[in-house]
Structures are given as C-alpha cells and as structure tokens.
Amino acid sequence: MSRAGMKLQLQHLGLAALAIAAVALPAAVIARQSAAPVGLQPVSAFAGIADPAARSAAIFTEMGKVLTHPRCLNCHPRTDRPRQGDAMALHNPPVVRGNAKGEGAPGLQCSTCHGPRNVAFANGTGSIPGHPLWHLAPIEMAWQGKSLREICEQLKDRRRNGGKTLAQIHEHNANDTLVGWGWNPGPGRTPAPGTQAQFGALTKAWIDTGAKCPT
Amino acid sequence: MAIDFQLNGKPASFAGDPETPLLWVLRDHLGLTGTKYGCGVAQCGACTVHLDGKNRRSCVTPVGTIAGKSVTTIEGVTGKTAEAVRAAWVGLDVPQCGFCQSGQGMSAIGLLTAKPKPTDDDIDHAMAGNICRCATYVRIRQAIKDAAGVKGVRA
Predict the structure, then answer these.
(1) pLDDT digits (tens, 9 = 90+) for B55-68
(2) Do A202 and A43 form a contact (C-beta atoms < 8 A)?
(3) What's the domain count of chain B?
(4) Which of A172, B7, B11, B76 is in the most buried spot, having the most CB atoms within 10 Å?
C-alpha cells in the first residue's frame, strides 16, 4: 500500500474511533455529581410525636428519602430496564433483566461491565459502579413510579420482599453491602442521604413503633 | 508485586499499577492490539474480551482484579464456536471499517457459548452493548444465526 493510502486508512480508523466515542457517552454516564449529599434526621428527632403510629409513619417518611433516591430506585425498576445516574435515565447500553436473578441477558450480563467494586474511568471524570453481587431487584420489588405508602406496604409484604421478616428487613437495610453501595457510589453519583447506620437505626425505630405506613 | 493471569492459554504477568485497565495492559504492554479502544467507559463494546469464559469490557477492568483468572482475546479465541463465528463473519463479509469487529466477534462467541441456539431477542439483548458506526448490525445478527444454525424470524 502506498504511504498516502496507508495514511488515509489510518485516518479512517481514527475517525471510526472518534465516531464510536461520540455516540457512546450519554449524559447519565459522564454527568458530574449534581447535588450535595442530603442528610437524614436521627431517630431522636421524632421523639416529640406522641402517637406511636404517627411517629412510625413519620420515621418511614424519613426512610423514604433513601428508598426513593436514585441510588436505590434505578435498580428497582417496574420494567425489565434499569435506569442510571442522578437523572434516572434509561440504562445505556440498553440492558435487560435477563435471568431470574436479574443478572442480565446471556452475553450481556451486569458483570460484563460491572465488576466487584467501583472503578474510576481511566480517561476522564466519572466511574462505573460495582459490587460482587450487582444485579436488579426482582420485579415484585419494583419501586419506580410508586408512592411511599405503596413502597411501605410492599416492604412489609413477604410475597413481595423476598420472604423477609421485619427483623430481616432491618438486617438488610442496616448491613447488606449491596444496599450499602448506595452511600459509596463512586465519582459522578450523589450518595444516598445520611449513612447506612442511620438508615438502619431509622428502620429499627420504624419496626419498634409498629411499622406503620404514611398515608 | 506482579499480577499473574492466564492470557490466551499461556501465563502472563504485569508488574505495573494494579489500577491499569486490562485494555491498556493488552495493547500497550503485551502487544495484543486486536482488542480495540473505543470509548473507555464501557459504552461501545470495542474492548470486549472473555474473562473466565464470559464477555467482559476490558476498558473498565483494573488488571489488579484479574489475578489468577483467564483472559481470552480475539487473537487467542479458539474452539468450535469461535470457528463457526469466524466462518459466518467471512461468509457474509460482515465488517465494513472493521474497528468494532473484534469486540462484536468476542461478544457473539460469548453469547453462543452461553446460549448456543439464541432467538432474535437473545441476539439483540446480547449485542446491545456493541456499537458499530458503520451500522453492520443486520449482517452481525445474520452471521450469529448462521454460526448457531438457527433461522430466527427477523432480518
């Protein structure tokens, strides 16, 4: 091949790479952290509510700041498509729920891209989130588009919460490391409000006051 | 400390920063340039390799996370499924510019390894993360069907 021909071919390869990169950077992936972390009120902040049922519902409403946060909602979809980023855009690439464990389709599983931990992009800002058990919540645990009351009722329903008792729900909220990822989501994502310890304490207080749901 | 792993069936080692993406190690340190850099953020699929037999984007895989594991690249992928994919790709003359095709081929082999007789939806779902700027998608889908010996219902 002539030198000019080779140069032209290399230019084509370069253009191809640029074109791929240009279409491959949706805003949800490269978006910078858009909001400052929000805190959670401690359990003691609800001590002034005398009626235990009202106190319980108020505590759950505080828990709702976490439950309805993008870090949680994105992977509790009511369809077979997860969302991503603080703007909760549809996940790109357009992955699907796949197998019964929500691990993605054969050939394009969550683990095709998501590793055992968060990984900062090598070529700029942002990161790809990761956890050893990265997967979608089962369809019966779908939260997107639901009111806080509906999510609350769903959380208590053993047919829709993975067969968990309230004590197991507390354990899940307080100690599960995939839940805990929500407070350590890596660069480019706003963490869930407060801390997992605070979320666990609120969950325990909610259960101890009767696990009432907000109206 | 060096990170040891299997690469295309042979021992390989990398003694640099364990955060270095596997793609950088393959291309810049071990000279295997068949795996391509497209976006660097797991959005295009050009860097797809097999990690312990499954599709994996090497641009977001720190080499430190693959110690003791087995990596297969387009240069080293072998076996009946790989041969069938290669023959189907040649038969349909799938590539145009070709830049994305090593990733496309590796994803296709990964799909057929996991699901030897895929439906149209299986193919679309598996290949959704591999972008082709020349839009060879229809030929890619047909080549996968040819390699699998299935007809499907869509072009």
Answers:
(1) 999 999 999 999 99
(2) yes
(3) 2
(4) B7
